[in-house]
Each structure stands twice: as C-alpha cells, then as structure tokens.
C-alpha cells in the first residue's frame, strides 16, 4: 500500500496540466507497468510514471499524509533526511530488505513534483480543516501567488524541500509492508535529484524550525478539540526520535476510520430536522416564518414566507449588533435579490469581508486568529439566513478561513489585516477576473464563422465569450433561451444587441424548435461537482438534454473556484427554492392571473426551483481557467485546486 | 344555400383568426357545420362528396395547422361513402373498394415518398383496383340521381352518421376518462404540461374513484394555461404543485408517469403537441418515465409528418415573450445596420417523435404508437387522404 502511495505521488504532478496542454515530461520507460495500475488516476495523467508500482491500487490513506504533513512541520527534518539517505544505501531498518528499499527510493527520483502529487491525493476528499493544518507545512510556498496557470509551474521547484522530507518519513512507513520486487535502479540523474532534494529539505527544515506554525487552534472551529489535541500529542512524540515518529504514525493508523469520515464535506443543514431548525432559529438574525403551502418533496430545504424579512431587517440596521454594516448591506442585497449571479455574489461577499476585516480589532484577551474566524463564521451564517450560500461562495469562505488560520502569530494585527485584505484581492483577481479572461480566450477558439450559438439564461462569462468572439471578427449568431420567472436572458439580449450581435430570443419550451439550427451550446454554471454534474440555473439541464438529443455539443464555462468535491445525482437533494409568488405572476401579462391568491388553496403549491443538476453525459466539455476538460476530469481540478488554498 | 355559405365563411374566419380554442372544439364545430351543409344539400352522394370536399378545403386553408378540421372532413367523407355503399349493395355490382380499411391505402399519402413507392411496388394489384374504383363510383352514382326516396334515406343515414360523430367527439373525454383507473394507482406522481381538457377529465375521473395521487403541472409558457389546470385540479382536492417549465428535468426523476394532451396524432405515431412537449418527452425517456398521450380519435391525422416543426407549426406573437418596450429598445440598435439584429421565435407546437411516446389512450382503448396506422385505416377512406385533389387533376 505504501509503495503504491509513493508511486502515485510521482504520477500526480503531471495532472497539473489539466486540459489539453502538451505534457513537458515524457513518460518514464516503466510506464507500461504502472500505467494500467492506476485506477483513480484521471484521464489526463498519462504523464511520467515512476518505476515503483504495484499492480493494484487502493486509495491511499489520508491520515497518513496528515501525520506526515504535521511531522514535517514540527520535526527537525535533517534527521529524517539522513535516514532517508541511509535507507537509500540499504541500511536495514526493522524488517526491511534491500530490494524493497530500492522501491522506496524511486519516488524520490522525481521528487521535485512528488510533493504536489501527495498534496493532491488528500485534497480530493479533504475538507477545509485539513487544508489549514497542512498549510502550516506549506508556508514556504505560500508567498507565491495563489492561482493561475503560471504560478503552478513556478511553485513546483520550491516545494522540493518539504516534499523530500515527507517522502523520507513516508518511506519508513512503507518499507515493512511493501513486498514488491524492485523495478529499476535509480539512475544517476535521479540520485542527484534526490540528493538535491535532501539538501533543500534540510534548509527548509531549518527555516521551519525558526517559526513554528499554529497548527490547529482557531483554524479548525468545526473540529472537535480532541482531534487537534491528539495531533499535538503525536507531534510532541515525534520530536525526540524518528523511530518514535514511526510508532506514532502507526498508532494513528489505528484510528483511521473516524479520521476519514471527517474528511467528507460536512452534511448540509436539513430543514426537515426539527430540533436543528429550532436551534438555528434561536440564533438567527433574520426572522423567518414558514411558508404555508410547503412542497412536501422539498421539506429538507428552507421554505419561508417571502417579503417579510426585508423591512424587518431594514428597521434593525441601526441597532447594529455584532454585524458589520458592510456585511449587513450585502446581506440585505442578497435578500432583496439585488445581487445575483455566482461571481457577483461571491465578489460582493469578499469585499464585505474585506471591509469588515479592515475595521476589525481584536478584543482584549483574545487572539486574532480565533476571534476573527468566529466573526467570519457569524457573518457567513448571517449571509446564509439571507440567502443560502452558493457553492462558489462556500469555497471562498473556506479560502478566507484558511488564510486567517495560517496567519503567523508573529504578525502584528495591522499586518495581519493588510495581509488578509490583499489575499482577498488576490483571490478575486486570480480566481475570478483572470480566470474569466482565460476561459474567454479558450472558448473563443471554439467559435467558427457561421456558427449559431445557443445560451441559456444569462451567464457573465458566456457573455464575455460572445463579445470577445465578436471583437475578433467572427461571424456568428446567438440564440438566447430564456425562462420564467427570472427572465435573465432579456438583459443579456439587450447587452448583446447593443453591441451589434445578431440575436434570436426564445423561451425554454421552444428549445427543441430552435435546436435544429444551433451548432454550439454555451452554458454557464453555478458549480461543477466532482462527479461531473453541472449545478446551474434551473433549465440548464433541459437545454443540455435537448442539445444532446440533437447532437449539438454542449460547452459549460465555469471558473475553477466554483468546482466542488461534493457529488450530486439529482436536483432534489440539494437545491434552493425561490419565491413561489414569482411563478404565479407572469410579468407583463395581466391576462394570466389564474393563481392570484393561490396561498388560500390548501392543495395547491407553487415550486420555484432555482437550480438543477445536469448529468455529465450531456456535457461535451467544460471550459475552465485550467483549460478545456471533459466532465470526467472535474475531480482532478478539484483535487488540484484544493491544493491552492494551501500555498 | 347562401346561409350555408355564410356559416362556412364564418367558421373559416374564426379558424383563420385562431379564435377556436382546442382541437375538440374545432372538431365539433366542423362536424356541426357539415351536418348543416349536408342537410341543405339536395344532391346525390357523388356531388355531396364534392361539396364536402370543397368546404373542407376552404376550412383547411383557413388554418392548415389545425389538423382536426381535415380529420373531420375525412370522417364525414367516409360516412358518405359508407352509407352510399350500404345502400347500393343491392342495386349495383359492388365496386372494387374492398381494400378500404387497409394499410395499403396509405400510399396515397403525400409525405413519405419512399414508403409510398415501396408500397406501390408491393401492392401493385390493389393500387390498380383503387385507381379504377373512383370512376366506377362516380359513374354509378350519376345513374340514380332521380330516386328520391332512396336519396332521402341516403341523406338521413349520412346525417345520422355525422350526428354519431358529433356525439363521439362530445363524449370522448368521458370514454377516455373511464380508463383512468387502469392507469393511475394510489400515490402516483403525475406530471403534465399546460392545459388539456382531456387530461383534466382523466385526472378527475381517477380522483372521483378515490384514488389519491399527486400532480405536478408545468405551467406551459407562453400561454401559462398550466395555471388554469392547477387551479381546477386543486379545487377538486388533488394535491397539485405548479412548477416552471424549466424545472421539468429536475422534477421528472420523482415522477411516475407523464400524462399529456396533444394537438394532433400523426400517422406514424408521432404527436404534434403544445410547445415544450418534446423537452418533457426527452426527460421522461431519460428517466424511463412512461409518457402517456390522451387523445380523442378526432385528433388522429392520417398524414405522415414531414418536417413538422416547421410545416405544421404556428408562430405566435412575440409580445408573449418580450414586451413591446423591450422589443423596440432592442430594435433601436439595429436600425443603422439595416438588417434586424433581433428575432423573437415563439412557436406554438412541438413535434414529439413516436419513439418517445409510450402509450396512446383514446376512447377506443390504449395503443402503442406503432399501431396508429391501423386506427387510421379504420377511420378514414383511402380516397380522402389527399383532400386537395381537384387542383391537381
């Protein structure tokens, strides 16, 4: 199992080049052995495999890497690096035999990137809490710009030190269990790489020794205290000798199952759970009254009366309790529906946080990290009361919390605040603004002269694509499909026609009529989930389905920060319900008034779903800032992207 | 005679202005008009066929998309021919018309050329028989124009037939609804789109027999008649949920059966339905939800569809989608360039291919789409399949 881990660590770095980039490194000659044996490796990871490989692969245990990460943070690495060398030179340790040691060394051969792979392994399922913890060890690279394609490549060489250290400690664990025949001796180049890595590791360890990082603390508010204290214990044990670290990690192996369970995303609030709803209500700022005619199928989602909260909240604006005015303002805008669209909502939230952080001062007898995290959590729960968070916003919140959690203690309050503000700015810039530019550039290559492009609703990135292609002088026609009750397409129609694009406007029912002439479908997305499901404005699934039936390619344009490791099969389990009155009222049609006082009819419910889940089968391609990928490669992005919260 | 002409024109105008709502209403009005026309006529069956065909052509031209008119015209023609036959069996040698109710007759249809050709080759003898049959028929009618009591009896029979037809049209909802219990079980979740009286009666019938079930109604933009249906169902204490058309895909995975009414049933088993139905049918197919079409036999059209999305479609007013203010704002931008930058497409109908339909429920029972051709040959005479014969010859 451990040997396998090692091999995966080597393979994964290539995964960075998601999309159709040319791989820079050739596959290693032993690829034939390793290739077929990688069950969960994404389609794009056909890049260099290591020599060490076992034919069957079981997903690596995550907790192991956790301990490794922690150890690298706290343990003086030079020691272990030395040991590494020893094992490389086949000094028996425990029940360890020479041929296996070769195996063990192989991961180090391509070490520069092995760390990357290791990181990605865990993040596929890990939740934010672990990211914070890991971030302690990842400090070296944290000074680098967080996102973007370029930064990724930049980052890799710098990661070497920690990585090799980690590999080292890992190898020790691996050794006893691996029973693989050795595949190939490390080449000279590989050995040199190894040595360099170890040297760098030494330096890194020294650097790290100087500033110990807050490992758990306020970073993991949702985690039981027991867990973190246990971790600290392991760290302490690790410090004296490496041997004991092995023991410790073995011990850790014993309690793996609970650890693993914590890694899946925490379950969302289920509104059919009465006791929890009551509890949440007591804390709530926004007064919600349950809607009368609730839809039975959606009991698990909040169904509240609309229109009553806003005046209530507005009246409360001057009795500012703990809420920052900027937060309050944005929350009200969510509630009123003034801000909509994934990116707009996310940016508004981040800007509000930024202001709140600027005006923040640590109360006496509290630490900034803990208190600010708690503050942000309370802000977030206020936002949720106003309108359920979108997945993209959830990701952004996770990002901020991780940033807060890993603020070095040595920083003064002012420094910490300015760091956080600039981090937020960078997030907005890298993940949204630049990402959109990259997407537009990619997607525009898929537009040919004479195309008829269909889009549904109003997605800002799709609009940018059309405008960009128009600026490039491509001749095409746009079909805008719209649907009630939001009719977002009308605004898009306005903007596109104003720019001189030829547009056809129709409603969603006519989509099978219009699909005959369409050559490409461009859709936006609220989120892309790990099983390839595209979670988007309701109706997207219909459009994609019809396009699929008519053999028209469907391109989903979505920034990678909206990807999420959750999976979803239908649109029922998790969704957002809009105002049911919007269904009853047809804008601009006074003749349609059959449902005017529907609330009085006990058997009549109105259901205004906000999102739906498009199955991956209907999606031909997802255009993201990492390139153009098939929906099956989404977990790769999630894994890779999760890592970026770290550095 | 003049008032008959007036009535015809009146209905034609109504049809042209799309003032008649629903194919059942159209069918009923058409049948009643023919009853008047026939009762006013003092001619023999041959002339009657011509007269009915003339009136029929006028009505069809008024609204070529309303296939129910053509169906009724053909049904009336069939009644005339049948009563004529039954009268003449004694007096004359039987005209070789035996193939009347056969699949073979379908080679008269204008649309599927390849089919027609293959059938022509396969059934050469019967085609010959058919070609010869018409002159025979006409010739022999001419001979007996003077037999007054007979022609009176003949006309009476026809009127009876048309009355039966009207009766059928009026009662088809009830007869279809009678089958509801066999298709709807307890706690069923049913989805429907828009508003159809047939569906409404169907669901009422199941509810009255103490079945309790749940109905999702997609509103059916741009008419939003789903709201009407939902309101009416809720008043009958059916658990009703209105959803927007875009949520159909999201909801369909929790639905047991889709029951819809349609505009017309084509000879291949495909249906012309209110816009949006193809989307619903595709979603139902994806989740293997039975897609049941309830339709009276007056909707049965003996034509094969050829590019039905375009040829058998109506374009409705854009203002249903885009208010005039919005529209003119957008048009302002395109004035400079000459060509309009904005098109608004608002079709009235959708074509659902037969492979997406699970079942047809008609007043004479339930049928698979592949069997529709047989029903057609039961109801229509092969000579009438193409009504516009005169201009051609």
UniProtKB/TrEMBL annotation, chain A:
Biased composition (Basic and acidic residues): 1-15, 230-239, 249-278
Residue ranges, compositional bias (Polar residues): 96-114, 170-181
Biased composition (Low complexity): 43-55, 195-207
Region ranges (Disordered): 1-60, 74-119, 137-283
Superkingdom of origin organism: Eukaryota
Family according to the record: Belongs to the eIF-2B alpha/beta/delta subunits family.
Stated name of the protein: Translation initiation factor eIF2B subunit delta
Organism name: Rubus argutus
Automatic annotation (TrEMBL), chain B:
Keywords: Cytoplasm, Initiation factor, Protein biosynthesis
Location of the protein in the cell: Cytoplasm, Cytosol
Entry keyword annotation includes Lipid biosynthesis: no
One Pfam short name: IF-2B
Gene Ontology CC annotation, any one: eukaryotic translation initiation factor 2B complex
Main location: cytoplasm
Molecular function in Gene Ontology: guanyl-nucleotide exchange factor activity; translation initiation factor activity
InterPro entries: eIF2B_beta_subunit (IPR051855), IF-2B-related (IPR000649), IF_2B-like_C (IPR042529), NagB/RpiA_transferase-like (IPR037171)
Domain of life assignment: Eukaryota
Family as reported in the entry's similarity comment: Belongs to the eIF-2B alpha/beta/delta subunits family.
Quaternary context: Component of the translation initiation factor 2B (eIF2B) complex which is a heterodecamer of two sets of five different subunits: alpha, beta, gamma, delta and epsilon. Subunits alpha, beta and delta comprise a regulatory subcomplex and subunits epsilon and gamma comprise a catalytic subcomplex. Within the complex, the hexameric regulatory complex resides at the center, with the two heterodimeric catalytic subcomplexes bound on opposite sides.
Protein name as it appears in the record: Translation initiation factor eIF2B subunit beta
Source organism of this protein record: Rubus argutus (Southern blackberry)
Record lineage: Eukaryota, Viridiplantae, Streptophyta, Embryophyta, Tracheophyta
